[in-house]
Design brief:
Number of strands: 5
Oligomer: single chain
Strand content: 15-25%
């Protein structure tokens, strides 16, 4: 067990987020408590494994984990609170959604949300803590699916390709077509276009 884990913890949840950087859609988080008697092979940072493997692990995590939950903060909350506070809120929702209450929570990154149990932030935790790796996979597959659904409604934006991140293609289509309701109005590229249109 890594030495940064609270030494008396018996039930540990890992938490990660996906979607802080995109210009569109919710920020999605997940919390996972793994079963030490039912290990999952191949857990890693969701960004470093193929989509095919992510989907396989996604199904396995949901089947084998002692508990898992997904949390989210929508576009209106991101614009109202800012992306950091919206992410913390989504993490709180994921932990609150667990069917088993953990006695310790490990959070990917360098900040922890306010929780009712002890928690610790772990930089690059999605690469070194299995519970956080599992959470990153659940969150990414969930958000990617939401972007695929959005692409079906707005095919000209290519959300299924760039997942809402500010790629050259996304910025070009945003400039040409304007924002949709799911765009984050507080993010500079979207805000600048809205300001330009209103003047």
């Amino acid at each position: 067990m890594p030495d940064f884990i609270y030494p008396t913890a018996h039930c540990i949840a890992g938490v990660d987020e996906v979607g802080r950087g995109p210009l569109v859609g919710a920020v999605v988080t997940a919390a996972v408590i793994l079963d030490p008697n039912n290990p999952i092979v191949g857990l890693a940072d969701s960004k470093k494994i193929s989509e095919k493997k992510r989907l396989m692990l996604y199904r396995e995590i949901k089947e084998k984990a002692l508990a898992w939950a997904v949390g989210r903060a929508d576009v209106e909350e991101i614009d109202r609170l800012n992306i950091l506070h919206a992410t913390m809120l989504a993490m709180q929702r994921a932990v609150a959604g667990l069917s088993i209450q953990p006695d310790y929570v490990l959070i990917d990154g360098n900040r922890c949300p306010a929780l009712s149990m002890p928690a610790q932030a772990v930089v690059k935790g999605d690469s070194i803590v299995a519970e956080i790796s599992a959470a990153s996979i659940l969150a990414k597959v969930t958000r990617d699916h939401e972007m695929t659904q959005l692409a079906e409604r707005y095919p000209e934006y290519g959300f299924d390709q760039h997942k809402g991140y500010p790629t050259a293609k996304h910025l070009e289509q945003l400039s040409r077509l304007g924002p949709i309701p799911e765009h984050r109005k507080s993010f500079a590229p979207v805000r600048n276009i809205l300001t330009r249109v209103s003047t």
